[in-house]
Specification:
single chain; about 140 residues; rod-shaped; golgi apparatus
């Protein structure tokens, strides 16, 4: 692979490109000027620059205030989230403790029902009758 790159090899492609797009793109002087050209013809005086700088300072200070308020808001949100997490953790522990106590109570009730001479069905009927009496009194 022996390459020879001469100076004109890079410019030789431009002829092919203009042929690709047609003759109207041959003239490179008609293209739009670059926004970075130095000869733009803009007259920027010191007063205009000073006014733009003061507007820039006002906008920067306003953005700084907004950033400070967003920072304080995010810090307060973080504190609230930490407090909520602690509350949810304690609530979860309370539910776990309640579940354990209910299981123990149910187990003790089942042991008591087995040791007594009255069957579980009889206990259920007694509780149902008591509930119906309370419900009837409450309605009246």
């Amino acid at each position: 692979m022996n390459y020879r790159i001469n100076e004109n090899s890079f410019h030789s492609r431009e002829g092919n490109r203009t042929q690709l797009f047609g003759a109207e793109y041959d003239d490179l002087t008609r293209r739009a000027a670059s926004p970075y050209d130095q000869n733009r013809g803009l007259d920027v005086s010191q007063s205009t620059l000073s006014q733009l700088e003061s507007q820039n300072d006002v906008h920067i200070s306003a953005m700084g205030e907004r950033i400070k308020s967003l920072k304080s808001l995010s810090l307060r949100m973080g504190d609230e989230i930490k407090g909520s997490k602690h509350t949810l953790d304690s609530l979860g522990e309370a539910f776990d403790n309640g579940q354990v106590k209910l299981k123990q109570t149910f187990r003790n009730m089942m042991v008591m029902a087995k040791n007594s001479r009255i069957s579980i069905k009889t206990w259920l009927i007694i509780f149902l009758v008591v509930f119906l009496v309370f419900f009837w009194v409450w309605i009246r």
